[in-house]
Design brief:
It is globular, with a radius of gyration of 16 Å. Strands 1, 2, 3, 4, 5 and 6 form a six-stranded parallel β-sheet that branches. Helices cover 38% and strands 16% of the residues. By secondary structure, the protein is α/β, with parallel strands linked by helices. Helix 4 (118-129) links the parallel strand 4 and strand 5 (136-137). Flavin mononucleotide is lined by residues 11, 13, 16-18, 76-80, 111-113, 115.
């Protein structure tokens, strides 16, 4: 059976490299993963006054994350951290019904530079470990999908053309699936 993976992408930009990575993964692993990319840009700003009776778009978002077997977060780094749109989505997930609690989670990111979103990923790990979120993080040693110089590795059609990177991601995905099922 395929693993259902709710996917959050931390960039709203039309030509986002991170969205390209998420879509490329969706196509490449379609026989192993049922990846749904959730539109986090449609969520309103988190507001405690609304959390007990949130707007339908928030309810639907939380339901989809709750029903998924695991969560994949694909994000750029903004100012050494995660983009606000992603933090906002996670804040909704962290309140009332804490739908990320115990949920297996995998992180990936692509940047144009040589740091490949490492600082954002380190921050994200802290956020995902907080009590309201409490995700079950895939252990990082050797499993960090950090793609450097992304503009040179993705073509205009969104194909990832770097063999070593493709082989690395293939390996991480297989290990992640095994780990989720163990
Ligand atoms: C507001 C903002 C802040 C950024 N901060 C960083 C940063 O701290 N570190 C970094 O490597 N790149 C940074 N960048 C560059 C992004 O990594 C680059 O624009 C990337 O392509 C964005 O991801 P996307 O293509 O998925 O939209 C920043 C870009 C923006 C727009």
């Amino acid at each position: 059976m395929t693993l259902r993976l709710a996917t959050l992408v931390g960039s709203l930009r039309r030509d986002s490299l991170n969205m390209k990575l998420a879509r490329w993964m969706q196509a490449r692993y379609h026989d192993k993963l049922e990846m749904e990319i959730l539109p986090i840009g449609d969520l309103p700003f988190y507001n405690t006054d609304q959390e007990l009776d949130p707007p339908p778009v928030v309810r639907e978002f939380k339901r989809k994350v709750k029903d998924a077997d695991a969560v994949l977060i694909v994000t750029p780094e903004y100012n050494w951290s995660i983009p606000g749109v992603l933090k906002n989505a996670i804040d909704w997930l962290s309140r009332v019904e804490k739908v990320m609690n115990g949920k297996p989670a995998l992180i990936a990111g692509v940047s144009n530079g040589m740091m490949g979103t490492i600082r954002a990923q380190l921050h994200l790990r802290e956020v995902l470990a907080s009590p309201g979120v409490g995700a079950r993080l895939f252990p990082p040693g050797g499993n960090e999908i950090l793609i450097t110089f992304g503009d040179q590795k993705f073509d205009a059609a969104g194909q990832l053309n770097d063999e070593a990177t493709v082989a690395f991601i293939d390996g991480v995905i297989d290990k992640f699936i095994d780990w989720c099922r163990a």
